[in-house]
Amino acid sequence: MSVEATITSKGQVTLPKPIRDRLDLKAGDRIAFSMEDDGRLLVTPVTGSVMDLAGMLPRPAVPLSQEEMDEAIAQGAARR
């Protein structure tokens, strides 16, 4: 696929819709640019890190004590 875009006076480029669609890019997504030795520019979506997932799961309604956690671990190990 080959498409063209124009650089604004502020150095900004709007990625053409076919490129955004092909890379499944949405507003707010991040992309990385890599310059090849032959002058080609690679555009790659930046994928999230494991740390981006922190806080996605709800916390238990009632916090468990250390003893309750130890017991649950022991029960899980016994089932193996």
Give a structural overview:
- The structure is a single chain.
- With 80 residues, the protein is α+β, with helices and mostly antiparallel strands.
- It has a domain at 1-47: Pemi-like Protein 1, Chain: D, CATH 2.10.260.
- Helix content is 26%, strand content 12%.
- The protein is built from 2 helices and 2 strands; from the N terminus they run H-E-E-H.
- The chain has helices at 17-23, 66-79; strands spanning 31-35, 41-45.
- The longest helix has 14 residues, at 66-79.
- The N and C termini lie far apart (52 Å).
Largest sheet strand order: 1-2
Q: How far apart are the termini? A: 52 Å
- Oligomeric state: single chain
Task: Briefly note the CATH topology name of the domain at 1-47.
Answer: Pemi-like Protein 1, Chain: D
The major beta sheet can be summarized as:
2 strands, antiparallel
**Proper CATH architecture of the domain at 1-47:** Ribbon
β-strand amount: 5-15%
Total number of helices: 2
Secondary structure tally: strands: 2
Give the overall shape: elongated
Uncertain stretches of 5 or more adjacent residues: none
> What is the CATH C-level name of the domain at 1-47?
Mainly Beta
Topology:
Blueprint: H1 17-23, E1 31-35, E2 41-45, H2 66-79
What tags apply to this protein structure?
80 residues; alpha+beta; Pemi-like Protein 1, Chain: D; two-stranded antiparallel sheet; elongated
Q: Can you describe this structure in just a few lines?
A:
By secondary structure, this protein is α+β, with helices and mostly antiparallel strands. The protein has a domain at 1-47: Ribbon (Pemi-like Protein 1, Chain: D), CATH 2.10.260.10.
